[in-house]
Amino acid sequence: MVALQPVRVYADTSVYGGVFDEEFAMASRRFFDRVGEGRFVLVVSLLVEDELRQAPREVMAWFERFRSGAEGVMISPDALALRQAYIDVGIVTPKSRDDALHVALATIAGCPLIVSWNFRHIVHFQKVPLYNAVNILHRRPELEIRSPQEVIDDEE
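User: That's the sequence. What structure does it adopt?
Assistant: Structure tokens below.
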């Protein structure tokens, strides 16, 4: 059997909260199980941490369990410029600038994958190709944008 390299993945705030949401708990927990197994390397940002400060205590505690083994990505001028590019072409409105920043941070960090439960502004079949088109125009890599359910590979 071939050992696969772990995939660097940016998990937005909704994935941590999903652990405690009845609808998303099973897939969210399985995603974090895969992190624990070494299949994924988490990439986290201060944006996720700031958003989680407003979440229930148990959600922040869950985040803390995984933060020490995660890579960090800074909110840089490049990330802010890419976020603005997403807004300028109308992928999201300025009201959803934090959602666009999550995608920009994952892109700047060089993550091939971002996972989210945000089906309105991030994991949306019309928006994903637009994010990637802007990335290409800005000489940035494309990335897969998926829900945790799509990446847990529960075929065992």
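Residues 33 and 92 are 32 Å apart (CA to CA).
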